[in-house]
Design goal:
InterPro entries: CBM56, Cyt_c-like_dom, Cyt_c-like_dom_sf, Cytochrome_c_Peroxidase/MauG, DHOR, FA58C, Galactose-bd-like_sf. Pfam families: CBM_56, DHOR, F5_F8_type_C_2. The structure is a single chain. With 937 residues, the chain is of the alpha+beta class. Among the domains are: 165 residues, Galactose-binding domain-like (Jelly Rolls, Sandwich), CATH 2.60.120; 99 residues, Sandwich (Immunoglobulin-like), CATH 2.60.40.10; 172 residues, no CATH class. A hairpin with a 2-residue loop joins β39 and β40.
Amino acid sequence: MRLPPHQRGAFLAPVFSLMTASALYAMSITAQAQIQNPSTNLATGASVTASTADLAAAYAVDGDNGTRWASAAQTDPSWLSIDLGQLYNLNQVEIFWEAANADTYEILGSSNGSQWTTLSTQTGGQFGHRTDSVSVNGTYRYVRINGLSRSAGNQWGYSIWELGVFGSPATCDNGCMLEVNGSTARAQMDGGDIVDLHYSINGGAQQNVRMNQSGSEWTYDVPNLSSGDTVSYFFTKITNGVGETTDAAQFTFGGQGGSSSSSSGGGSGSGGSSSSSSSSSGGGSSSSSSGGSSGGGSSSSSSGGADLGSIVPLYDGSTPLEPVIQYETATALVTRFSDRARDRHAKEDHFQAYDHYLSFYWEDRTAAIEIIDEVAKGGDSVRMNVRTEFKLSDTEAENRWFYRGVGTVAEYCDNGTMVVEDQYNYHKERTYNCREGRNIQVGDKLEFELSQFLDASVPNGRANYYGTTFLYIVGEGLVPWDVGGTTPFGGVKDSYKIPEAAWLGGDTTIHALTSGETDNHFMQMATNIGYENAQPFMRGRRVLHSSAVDGVHDEKPIENPPLQDMIGLAGPHYIADSCASCHERNGRAAPAPVGEPLEKWTFKVADANGNPDPYLGSALQPKARGGASSEGNVSIAFWSEQNGLRSPNYAFTGVTPERFSARIAPNLVGMGLLEAIEESAIVAQADPNDSNGDGISGRVNRVVDPETGDTRLGRFGWKAGAPSIRHQLARAFNTDMGVMTSVFPEPDCGSSQNDCGSGGAELDDQHLQDLTKYIALLGVRPQRNHDDPSVQNGQQLFSSIGCADCHTPTQQTSANHPFAELRDQTIHPYTDLLLHDMGPGLADNLGEGEASGAEWRTAPLWGLGLSACVTGGVENPVGGQGNEVCTPEHSYLHDGRARSIEEAILWHGGEGEASKNGYQGLSASGKQDLLNFLNSL
């Protein structure tokens, strides 16, 4: 029982038989005396808050052993947070629990009260009074006790007599941000040819500035700070053309005579004391650029989103960040990105030879580009610095500027070659706009194309290549472009900036298709791919296209050599030998004809209780190597059809599992941007109890991080079963290809199988990191026909009939993702990433994580109208160059049953029932407008 508040004494907990309240109190005093830390308790008298408080939070830090904080009954999770007032190097936390205590709880630390790091997770707590002394490590100002689950028998809440936090004031080493007076703070960084500071104040917009050089020292005074402001920052140092980025850090400004803090180390400042801490300190693990854990705690997000409960964000304020793509200095707008070699030019649809990839594309065929736009800051020149992977031809270091389109659709008025600095570095600088016949001005369209005419000594492949066609708006940056109209010289296919509302992938959005290659939409790198990221992108692409049986590349296998590191990794049981076997051209698969094996599908399987099948494991793997036995094939035995809607009936040649879920290979584009959406933004959209009564109750899927054990938000897979791209890929290697990684080092094996092979990582982690970067940085095509009145009306109907209630049109990515290309982007994926019950018609009998058999993650809609041509590919019925045409193969929903977008709509039941009915109630023209809109995505 729980006594009503007016009957509870200051120390009285749940009523126990055989023990009086006074006896409990006496025991508590004795226990407290035995464990009291001899150091000063930093928590006593500190500012304190709690998620709920039946008894005041302040009672836990008042120094009175007879008063306690009590959370609301049966509310998990619940937390208590204290503000120590400044940063301390923490070493111990002591919790004097009242009998109503935690079975599992976290101790979290934070330097700003918004981003949290897990210092320790404690489990196995038993009901009854106890004191926990927990060693911690790290420099933090805020400490939170986050109760995740209550001990067995605790029918009340969480209750703490007194909280102890112990440590010493933080100190500062050379190189940190220094307080210099009451309104500015100094950032200092040694060495480098160029040093840039990237900072934001109190979670605001990121500022990117070139620091001031004095000899080998670079400094910058951050202006307009007030006491208590939190500055998040990192440095980019470029030495001999190579960029180096520091870990992300935070600076808490103390004001005149106050204290300040930093994570990168520094000297002492005037006007007050300063302190520092390592960005990787504490019990939490720092995130890597490969997409690992950041160790952030469970809390409300810094942007004021929903409380995450037990969910630990993938990335937080301590995540190391790659260098930004664009920043400003006092004299220039600087854009740093990269490019790849091409066969032909972007606007030459008569060749259809631009979007595909060349032989040896991972060798010597990318370039890093830096645009220094001084016109943007009142200057008169634009300079382009280019770094190549191989020496260019002495006479053909071509970089063509200002499109004219006269005679050919690849003609520019400034075709001059670049100045050669050395065999890898080149530049071109201009003040004159030959297209307009005047000096360059802000707003000018500087379309350019870098041609990589390599020196003939290049070891593999041919030497001459063109490059990507970019549109740079002077004073603004790179923009996705389309064609239309004439140039000032009467040329055709002039380029124009696509309206930003049609940039489905934010700054990653690539230009419109103008080369006529309808099957290659999903294979392009992001427009804003970073200065150092073209090569890992290409290496990752090679992994995706290489067989784990013989290493052979599925494109140009005669010219492209096998990837030696992939040879012999597949099996003993597997589904396919390469990623591209199922995700052809990075698109979705389609159902095989009746009776033929479904080789591009995954069948998740289980026994009657939902546990791995004893003869199959967690996924059916039909192929076998090395003496292992096949687990059998699955095919579509026949289709059932009712009211124009078809559904598959499956036939198993081996063991027929008690439970299974059929999953077709989905599109791969846009995954990086979905990973970059902040957890709090997704949780804020959830309404598990349908509190607003609209019939939609989106839920999050909480999954376990296989590397850290943290609870994460599920994002990927048809039921949101994977928290990150890295983990989704590692799981696919494990179950689909039978390849072990550091993430999943054990084979997928049933308890009755004995031919599964041994454990241990087989794929080098660098290959997994490169593949993760490749998938994350694929570009998204822009919306097409966005100015068509039918499409615009269809977009309004999409919202008015309720489709947008689950297919959320717009999301914002966070500032914490390690890849700069994905940070702070406004995107239009048309998904809330939540689970929704879609009714019995689409249900199977196997859940995943917290998802039931009837629940599916809202599928993103970007690329929807392009996928049929990507899946079906092209044919050339008349022969000759430029005559390839799309042979569409429509395949929608999780098992490809829908043969059209309309059929997919009509399958919506459960939470999608009302929207389906709304669609059916539209006029014929209204339905067509809505379908035209969906096809535009």
